[in-house]
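Bench log, entry 3. Co-assembly request; chain sequences pasted below exactly as received.
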Amino acid sequence: MTHTVDTKNSDGSRRADDAVEAAAIESELDASARVAKKPGAGDSRRASTNDVVVARTDVERLGQYLLGTWADVRLAARELTARPELQRIDGLTLDEHRQRVFGQLKLLVENGQVHRAFPSSLGGEDDHGGNIAGFEELVTADPSLQIKSGVQWGLFGAAVLHLGTAYHHETFLPGIMSLDVPGAFAMTETGHGSDVAAIGTTATYDEATQEFVIHTPFRGAWKDYLGNAAVHGTAAVVFAQLITRDVDHGVHAFYVPLRDETGAFLPGIGGEDDGLKGGLNGIDNGRLHFDQVRIPRQNLLNRYGDVAEDGSYHSVIESPGRRFFTMLGTLVQGRVSLDGASVAAAKIALTIAVTYGNERRQFTAGSDTDEEVLLDYQLHQKRLMPKLATTYAASFAHEQLLTKFDEVFSGASDTDEDRQDLETLAAALKPLSTWHALDTLQEAREACGGAGFLAENRLVGLRADLDVYATFEGDNHVLLQLVAKRLLSDYSRRFAKADFGVLARYAVEQARGRTVNGTGLRSLAQTVADFGSTARSVGQLRDAAAQRQLLTDRVETMVAEVAAKLRPASKLSKKDAADLFNLHQSEIIEAARAHAELLQWEAFTEAIEGASGIAAGLDDGTRVVLTWLRDLFGLGLIEKHLAWYLMNGRLSPKRAQAVGLYTERLSARLRPHAQDLVRAFGYGPEHVRAAIATGAEKARQTEARDYYRAQRESGTAPVSEKAAAKKPAATRA
Amino acid sequence: MTHTVDTKNSDGSRRADDAVEAAAIESELDASARVAKKPGAGDSRRASTNDVVVARTDVERLGQYLLGTWADVRLAARELTARPELQRIDGLTLDEHRQRVFGQLKLLVENGQVHRAFPSSLGGEDDHGGNIAGFEELVTADPSLQIKSGVQWGLFGAAVLHLGTAYHHETFLPGIMSLDVPGAFAMTETGHGSDVAAIGTTATYDEATQEFVIHTPFRGAWKDYLGNAAVHGTAAVVFAQLITRDVDHGVHAFYVPLRDETGAFLPGIGGEDDGLKGGLNGIDNGRLHFDQVRIPRQNLLNRYGDVAEDGSYHSVIESPGRRFFTMLGTLVQGRVSLDGASVAAAKIALTIAVTYGNERRQFTAGSDTDEEVLLDYQLHQKRLMPKLATTYAASFAHEQLLTKFDEVFSGASDTDEDRQDLETLAAALKPLSTWHALDTLQEAREACGGAGFLAENRLVGLRADLDVYATFEGDNHVLLQLVAKRLLSDYSRRFAKADFGVLARYAVEQARGRTVNGTGLRSLAQTVADFGSTARSVGQLRDAAAQRQLLTDRVETMVAEVAAKLRPASKLSKKDAADLFNLHQSEIIEAARAHAELLQWEAFTEAIEGASGIAAGLDDGTRVVLTWLRDLFGLGLIEKHLAWYLMNGRLSPKRAQAVGLYTERLSARLRPHAQDLVRAFGYGPEHVRAAIATGAEKARQTEARDYYRAQRESGTAPVSEKAAAKKPAATRA
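Structure output for the full assembly:
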């Protein structure tokens, strides 16, 4: 049964194939160094596409580019986070850490770091984008500091600002801004996290006294996981079902004092400490419950719904559902800032791992004396370089999100559509960046071996702190489901009047006009009309249009397929419809993830192709490096989903194999630029603060080398047993 | 350009296809419930394969089965770990935690828990397998306790036992066993972890005084990350280059006293505390360095190499390389016990997440009052059920590893070949199980939302502690590379005399006799002669032979391909050969991973098919459940590597799509058995110790339901705004 083949030939030609393939890829990479010379619009240098550009990174200019629109705010914040008194000290007790971070909040107030988003009439700056940019940078000092200030000013304060009206602003904001009134954001309950609409706490209006009665009807309705609740909070914004005249108007927010000057709970209020957590232990998370606690009618934050003295309810938004989502939507900034902070943490992780990987040596390869630097190993490149590419993609995508956020909240571009787009964009990007940060921190920690496990090298602490980013401010899977619902409703709205069967295949079969996911999120109008369903050459893979085509096609096809599968739901009972949806839940979420990945890819591509501002100022060498990095990101996504492309006939098996080879070569090409690419993140030793990323390892390597060299030169080096065994034999001969 | 097709038909038939596919899968699953009736050899019930067996789990019997050969030892250890004084307390300071764990070590001594592996002449039991089984269970009390006792008796003590001879046993072991002499295992250096052969510490023999001089020549040669080194260790086994008569005989182990009775370092010895770590903070890891420290000649642990008074060196093993690997090989038990402890941690994680997922409700689906239990969501099943399947696979695989370990160390089956097989098996399984534990703990933590982040629910603490398991006792990637090298050398040895080109394709093209990876590791003789290169039906996928074929084929093909690519290395310079190896490093490691996955799959399959002992006693219902679980594991592996199967023509696109559908349905089928499957792990509340896995959530849900029901029944429930708005309209009509 054993097959005998003409082996020399078959074996030889296979290796020849490999070599041809590899050569083709290298030549394509050279080609990309030529076409990457993409000058600004109207620049006549465009003609000379045959010049080979030497790939090199202009670290300073790229660094400036990465700082983005709010560069000055970020630089100011980094000056602050460079101060030891704002930085985390490992090994503090729970109480010490909590007190330290609380004290740091006061330092932030003193330094004017946290009032940017508030009205200028109250001493703020009405600067919404800058405010978030500044907050995000705090993560490098101590994530507890970032999140605790986020609780105070981004949640508690922002709820008063965005859900309250003039009375609340004037009455409550000054104390919140100055930290005289530390407060909790009491939304989540033990029994309800992501499903906010179902919380159990009630706020029942009592006409007789013109008060609301805040009440916790059962244990599951205790407010839980609230920062500032265990110790420091003296007030809270409490979310509760507003009931007046026996009608439940849904979830509204109320300003509720919690503790007196001595720190004791006010009558009717109780709570518990959440105790030690997996991270973020500088924050005093805790539980709260209310036993018929009375607050004045005016403490209802009444921007979107109000109760008159007589108990009648009024709202500017008629639909209870839309009203609820509008209220929640004002709090989107939490997700925006987690997205940015996650990117910052990934940058720190890679700065540490790449620096160490460039210094640390292990195992000799081809020499008896010199060991290889870790980053010269293919596997080490494979572990770190794609993470670097994704971090750049996430960084550029975050800048777009932050810009969108600023446009909406500054009022520059604030329609319902804009708000929905912003929320969907945040819901798409936050899951990817928070998971990416965890994956990157873990890979970096493992890539640094035992040293990575020491607290002094930062990685484990950052990972522990960022762990919860994946589930707070919206569980990542729930957020992706929101995105998917938006994609599906965009899809069906766009084709509401067309025959559905056509539409289910619309995105699959059409060759241009791919605008399915476009509503506000991203215009996918650009497609390649003459691009077939199977990529035909290695070269096509590195073409941006080809990557876009492959990534876009996948999103559109998945959305169309899911839409077709869910179509019968409209004719089913509520229960059966829910079952049908559940039967496709994984696909739905996978479609959302694909969409979010595409958004990151588009942001990266726009950043390279940008023809104005700093982008236009990027030199050709930097553009080559960035283009390779973008290709590594794009082809990495295609590689990750390779089975899909193969099953759906989008890539031939042969082309599919080229994808993996391509990303491997890209990683190798980018390897000499790794250190520059992390230097461009702009974090100095005062932000990185990892013993293994200080050059100490290099110094140790040098000392060891010098020792062995001196030993050899002086003739005092012992000979190896093997050499000693040979010697007499040689002598005999 | 828009394609118009007969939509009703095309849409309709697509859904019909889906339905047919789904029905086919369900029917296959029913079929597996029939054929799963696999009785013991010679059992006449075999005939009645048409009876449908009701899938149900005999928790008690399955639990007994999972306990394995050393069930009694495990149960005794679990009784011990149920005692609060042996359990971790969260939030202790570094010093408190270290002292507590040190105290717990004494309790273990008092309870006779840790001497099983030592000679009966010294009060031990010569029970090697049982010893490891007992150690592994300690992880549920506190991973620091497991690892700290591992350092004392599994590394420090085991080095004296296995590398020393009678003098050392009699002189040093009693103090080690009683913990009178806590000690460090000083192998790793700051500059060298995985590459032990390259350590810098020297032990130079001085004929004049008949002493060895232990010396640290440079900073990179400081011993590092050593448990017991920072505080408690009064002695150490130090690994150093043995130099005598100007010849370096390579790495040997020496018994070196470290501290005096006051805890102060002895002259010439210094050190540093490694400080806080990402986890395992109950262990005092630290650094040591030696400045010309003199120890008696007799302190060389001389089982495999000795120096006579006159400085002449003698060894029973002539080759320095083989001698080195033999010495290291005696310390394989660290890897074995990490494998087992990781499995135990994954079991705890799933017990918590499944229990909570079965109680916690979120979002209504199809009803206005009842929310869904988390585990009823498809995505939640998809997140947890495959992890459950892998945990079972890893558990059965570990039992095989432990048995192999016991056979070798008890001397029952202790050839060079056996030792090599044991080392390769440990190197294959430890990476997979340690990573699996981390992935499972993380998925469980996220699946429990904010509650998962609280220390009181155990998941974050366990994850933090187990993090380093991925890189200590052999970095996972380095271990997989060892496995790959073994696979490659087995491959080339087997075909040493055959023409290589044929052989490169041997495994790919032959239809039977697949024994490539068989050398001692696992006999892959069983193949399906008439099984084509493309699976032809859904039914074939759930056939064990088909799964084995697909998994085996992948390992063999990858090994053969890599071997072909590396073949030119023998004709290249050392440097070029290393470069060639590096160019294929990722593939090499991927082949090893595939091999390890196959080993897990085979272990799972053997556990189901076992015809003797407890396996034979498993009832048919349990066997059905286990078979589904094994299929989920096997098909899950194929799904994970689907791109490979497609690119290499092993699965058609259509069949490939069926794989994903199949694993989804399997998860759904297994969902009702999830609680039983975690109960069978046998960990009680005293081991699980997670607030959310105590039934508290269920009680909260019940209370909330009762509250709403009572409100509805009494007519005091407020009506929703939507309902209130409809009411007047209805009245008007």
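Chain B has 27 helices and 14 strands. Residues 695-732 of chain B form one domain.
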